[in-house]
Amino acid sequence: MNLKEIINVVDGELLVDAPVSIDIQNACCSDLMSDVLMFVKPNMLLITGLTNPQSVRTADMAEAPIIVFVRGKYPAPETLALADDLGIAVVLSAYTMFETAGLLYEAGLRGLGKLPIVRQR
Amino acid sequence: MKSRFTLLSLLGGDGGLGKVHELIREIRVGRVMTTNMYTVAPDDLMSELKELMREHHISGVPVVEEGTLAGIVSIEDLIHSLEEGKLDSPVRDFMTSGELIVARANEPVMEAVRRFEVTKIGRMPVLDTQDNLVGIITRGDIIEALLAALQEVYSEAERIHDHPDYFFEALESDSTSLVLRYNVKHRDFARGGDASAKIKQALLRIGASPVLARRVAIATYEAEINLIIHTDNGGTITADIKPYEISVLAEDRGPGIPDVELARQPGYSTATPEIREMGFGAGMGLVNIDRCTDDMSIWSALGIGTRLQMIFRVSPEETKRNGTG
After folding, report:
1. Are strands B305-313 and B123-127 parallel, antiparallel or unpaired?
2. Which of A68, B35, B157, B251 has the fewest CB atoms within 10 Å, i.e. the most exposed one?
3. How many whole angstroms separate alpha carbon B116 and alpha carbon B127?
4. pLDDT tens-digit profile of B150-160?
5. Portion of chain B with pLDDT greater than 70, in percent
6. Looking at residue B12, what is its pLDDT?
7. What is the DSSP letter of B28?
8. Which of B210, B221, B283 lies nearest to residue A61, judging by beta carbons?
9. Nearest to B297 by CA among B190, B315, B289
10. Which positions ≥6 away from B227 have C-beta within 8 Å?
11. In angstroms, how far is CA B286 from the centroid of its own chain?
């Protein structure tokens, strides 16, 4: 799925354009950046409600070429500036995270499948 | 020595200007001048000078009398003699003599460049410390040397690009490493990730595999965020890059971790709700670091500080590793 298709599927607004030539197959949905860093694979779509610059940093580290911000939460200017600097495309979806993810899943994007169980304190 | 300068200037990212600076500031006139030159004597005739200039396509010649520089004669002087119909006169009558503008073999090329600029002359005889004539220098000689230096810088850059190992092979020591240091400020969320991103860039630039660069970046990023969130006064990140191993050290001066074993448990975190709101403090940082590194160790003491060392081995199987997946 390319950038244009993703925007269409979530009826989103393109906030930062970037030349993304990759055909995106998988997506990752989280507001916890450590979780993203833990599980994301290169060239995945990052869907998050966390709109501070760290979401962009995390996408950069995790090599996610596109971020979709959800529930119509317009990111701060410094978040967009950093994305522009790092060449990461940013899309704003007015749907909730659940619905944004659902629409993209329906359109063919997949996640990581089942992960090993980690016992936590 | 030469390649070390080039490598450092490449690291500095000035794309070779360092080499040119080095050339202009440090290289002496003696290395750039033409030594294989023609000279005439004051008593030689202007007609002889004309033949010499025509035969060898030169436009200026030092005049030497009994081994010492007596003057300089140029194509303009030859034109004067032609205009006056005095090709049979000796060079002495038309040459420039007296207070000659000269260059010294041991002075920096920069000085010669300045003198050319101020005086607008085309060439300078070059003298050694005993005032012996040892060469001649023109603006062309300097330009040629600069172009050669640039060529060298660019072919060096290409070599490093094509064969990243060359970067380390060019340096001789018992153990060579590249050390990058970054200061991380407490609570500086805006710049959080800067150090990690720069280390990743540096690794990719010197030819590390993307997979290796990525796991170093992710582990370093977690450590960087820890410095921002948990320290009293921030800390430092030092990446020590060797051809076979990368070590990243995150250090701070407090407050220290009360129970390191506890802190390493998945899900354990002391982060405030405010920090959790920013997307951190899920208690997965050290777990994630452990996953990305080949070896990690934490030393911490309350009231003193914390040292987190992360080791990444650069193996030929690097690309097979899917640890970051």
Report:
1. unpaired
2. B35
3. 16
4. 787 777 777 66
5. 85
6. 43
7. B
8. B221
9. B289
10. B184, B186, B234, B235, B237, B250, B252
11. 37
Of B210, B218, B278, the CB nearest to A37: B218
CB B150 within 8 A of CB B23: no
pLDDT (tens digit per residue) in A34-84: 888 888 788 999 999 999 899 999 999 989 999 999 999 999 999 999 999
Q: Which two tokens stand for residue B264?
A: 């390493």
Q: A30, A57, A63, A86: best mutation site toward chain B, by most B Cβ within 10 Å?
A: A57
Q: What angle do CA B63, B64, B68 make, to 5 degrees?
A: 135
Chain-centroid distance of CA A32 in Å reads: 12
**CA pair distance B323, B150, nearest whole angstrom:** 42
pLDDT score, position B183: 95
CA distance B199 to B197: 6
Q: What is the pLDDT of residues B217-266, one digit of tens each?
A: 999 999 999 999 889 889 999 999 988 899 999 999 989 888 888 888 88
CA distance A119 to B170: 49
Contacts of B211 (CB under 8 A, 6+ apart): B318, B319, B321, B324
CB B170 within 8 A of CB B3: yes
Answer yes or no: do B266 and A33 touch at CB < 8 A: no
Those residues with Cβ within 8 angstroms of residue A106's Cβ, 6 or more apart along the chain or in another chain? none
Task: Report which listed range, B88-92, B111-115, B154-158, B200-204, is most confident.
Answer: B88-92
Interface contact A31, partner B, CB < 8 A: yes
Please report, for residues A36, A52, B157, B165, B266, the alpha-carbon distance to residue A41 in angstroms, rounded to integers and kept in the order given: 9, 21, 32, 28, 20
User: In this complex, do B197 and A62 lie within 8 Å of one another by their Cβ atoms?
Assistant: no
Predicted model pTM: 0.62
What is the overall mean pLDDT for chain B?
A: 84
Place of tokens 């000796």: B90
Q: What is the pLDDT of residue B261?
A: 86
Which residue of A34, A50, A51 to mutate against B (max B Cβ within 10 Å)?
A34
Which of chain B's residues have a Cβ under 8 Å away from the Cβ of A32? Answer: 279-280, 282, 284
pLDDT tens digits along B2-41 = 344 444 444 444 445 566 666 667 778 998 899 888 999 9
SS3 content of chain A, % helix, strand, coil (to 5): 35, 15, 45
CA atoms in the 13 A half-sphere facing the CB of B262: 6
